[in-house]
Amino acid sequence: GPSSVGMDFSLHGFDHVYGIPQHTEALLLKNTSDGDAYRLYNLDIFGHKIHDKIGIYGSVPLLLAHKPNRTSGIFWLNSSETLVDISTKAVAEHVASGSAAETAKQRAVPLTDVRWMSESGIIDVFLLMGPTAFDVFKQFAQLTGTQAMPPLFSLGYHQCRWNYEDEQDVKAVDAGFDEHDIPYDVIWLDIEHTDDKRYFTWDKKKFQNPRKMQEHLRKKKRKLVVIVDPHIKADPTYTLYSQAKDKGYFVKDRNGQDFEGICWPGSSCYLDFTNPEVRKWYADQFAFKTYKGSTNILFVWNDMNEPSVFKGAELTMQKDAVHYNNWEHREVHNLYGFYQQMATAEGLIRRSSGKERPFVLTRSFFAGSQRYGAVWTGDNTAEWGYLRISIPMLLTISMAGISFCGADVGGFIGDPEPELLVRWYQAGAYQPFFRGHSNMESKRREPWLFGEKNTQIIREAIRERYVLLPYLYTLFYRAHTAAEPVMRPLWVEFPGKIETFGVENEYMLGNALLVHPVTEQEAKAVSVLLPGSEEIWYDFRKFKRMEDPGTLKIPVTLENIPVFQRGGTVIPLKTRARKSTEWMIDISYELRVALDTEACATGELYLDDGHSFQYLHKKQFLYRKFTFRKNILSSSCTDESGQYHTTCVVERVIVLGFGQQPNLVTACPKDGKEKEVVFKYDTKTSALTLENLALNVDTDWKICI
Ligand code: MIG
Fold this sequence. Notes:
- By secondary structure, this protein is of the alpha+beta class.
- The protein is built from 12 helices and 38 strands.
- The protein has an 8-stranded parallel sheet. Strands 27, 28, 32, 35, 36 and 37 form a 6-stranded mixed sheet that branches. Strands 29-30-31-38-33-34 form a 6-stranded antiparallel sheet.
- β21 (507-509) and β22 form a beta hairpin.
- α2 packs parallel to α3 (210-219) and α5 crosses α7 (336-351).
- The mean pLDDT is 96.
- Ligand MIG binds at residues 46, 162, 190-191, 227, 303-304, 363, 378-379, 412, 437.
- Ligand MIG is lined by residues 46, 162, 190-191, 227, 303-304, 363, 378-379, 412, 437.
């Protein structure tokens, strides 16, 4: 039964609070004194409303508070239904005065009261003392873990739909990408691919030879993701069901019978993933010999794991259902999906004898889900407002430790007008998880269905994503090893600049890129805040230095969205995109060096085989550092313990904000011969381009200008 615990916290001096996903809400948490509290209760809410405090799909009970140059966090570790009330006000504070004769002065200081209330459980709370946001992220990672290192393919573009009908459809869509010269890595199969919603099976008519289909995709160096939901069709002839029933692996009702609910397959039982034995058994279901028709290019999508129960109260499991060790469902509700994803990821690792990184997308999540894969924001709608709100939603999830997150590109429900679809691709290309997806009732939406011009723009957006992958992959390595969120709000990078604290229409991707998606229909211009008075910003595509920082009105066309590189950074890119990440292994690198006010810049490149755990067990990786100082760009090693051989070279370097046309540029490999470098200097943009460098990625070198 419910027992209820709660606690109040007063955050002195703070009036900016963030976190506690997941809500279809703004970045800054709002005062709840005259409305609903923020609710943390994982629910399947189809077409969730914008600006709503109701809990959807996932929960992370972590709240961050920030004031100039000081960040703290509260982690309320409780997985039952939780409400968070927030009240921000100004209070009078006495200021100690210099002399006794002077009367004490008063000033108004902000204060935020936070009240946590949970339906049951114990009070188990962690105060994360910062003092920086990055410290808070690290402290939270010490408790819950860091982002799993994703396989490289999963950072490519994903093409999903409810449903790709059959093997012919899959082949045709796959061929469509080649025909239209658009890169993509993964095609997805939704629930209709199964034999009557029996997960781990195939519809015998539509998918007669799933292995052959996967061999076809493998030859194209692409992957397949299939959906595997947690509800199990109550059908004694379905082995998964009968085994689980015999072993007592289902959640029970209050009378000790297997809990039965309705879901896609009709009457269904729900595996009890809170039981470690069930998780082990479930993980074994992914073994190649058990999961018939699966191959090692097949990866997994866990949906409906709030859990979603049709006809149940609020479409979920009743709270008095009983789990392993007699835990009532109410106690562990918000952990149900977390444990399914854990078991699935474990299964994919185990089927490869511990060698390969898994990829598992989950809809429901909790604190720590970052250790098992990616999350997405569920059933959004094909409207501009949902594109806009996806930015604060993803930033909030990212701050709560889950870097690998994305929203359905195009909007799941309904049909986006072409302009909205284009704008969504352009935003998604600069977000961590990049997948186009659409509902069963929506019209087909493959990127080439909207006329030549829109196809061309979407192609360009996806190609930009692929060219950016070395940088993104390096950011994921930082998330994995140092708990730095890949996508971050401006205030995290500019903690002293109050004007950034509420910004949610643009964001930083790592520390080097500022991205401002276009989220208004027929926009001719957008207002971009380029923060920091001592910063220099460069147009990422045109290389030109922006005028002084501040809020600028930037003209836009449909062709692309504003992206800026921050002075002082070096971004590693590929020189061009190809059909998929695996086709790009040998493509050479370009370094974008953006100079700061001192004409300096630094950046990193992480690389490994992109799919195995050898980077961990055998230290097979390269972690390089690029430094520009006194007109010398040098490449050095960041982590001597890592080694990885690659024939891939740095072919091109572009230095942005270079003062004047140089006389001579030379490249000096560490043990090689100094040679003259071909260069171009553009006086209009001050961009210096060095070509045909052929400098090894895995050795030290210098370029002297
Ligand atoms: O209620 O599997 O959010 O992405 O396509 C619908 C069918 C169930 C909900 C997921 C959506 C998926 C759909 N699922």
